[in-house]
Design a protein that fits this description.
Blueprint (H helix, E strand, L loop, with lengths): L2 H12 L6 H21 L5 H23 L7 H22 L5 H15 L7
Helix pairs in contact: 2-3, 2-5, 3-4
Length: 125
């Protein structure tokens, strides 16, 4: 086996497919939403895990809010405003959940609707 064949063999197998931004965002939402669902089920047994999942969801939405607030963001202005509003809602609702007053199902539903949008599907009511 020559050097070229060895290089092709070594790099050909390990090359990971490149994801689009949309696919990467979908994966982030799917991972965090799955964590929220699982953490909700185990809330009493693993409260710190529940809080960590809620915190990671807030971080995701904060990252989106920062991104859509940038003037160079190419999304339509109306969509950027709605995403920013959802980030604010997520932050406020997360605080309410930690106080025992909020609704985790609302956050999960929002994430699921965003995932449907990222896949190009119409949200189901």
């Amino acid at each position: 086996m020559n050097v070229t064949e060895r290089a092709q063999e070594a790099y050909g197998r390990s090359a990971a497919p490149i994801k689009s931004h949309r696919a990467a965002e979908f994966d982030a939402f799917a991972r965090i939403t799955r964590r929220l669902r699982n953490a909700a089920k185990a809330r009493k047994q693993d409260y710190s895990g529940f809080v960590a999942a809620l915190h990671d969801n807030r971080r995701l939405w904060t990252t989106l809010a920062v991104d859509v607030a940038q003037p160079e963001n190419l999304l339509p202005r109306d969509l950027r405003a709605r995403i920013f509003w959802l980030a604010e809602f997520t932050d406020a609702e997360s605080r309410r959940i930690l106080e025992g007053k909020g609704d985790l199902a609302a956050l999960i539903e929002i994430n699921a609707a965003v995932m449907q949008g990222l896949q190009g599907a119409e949200p189901q009511s």
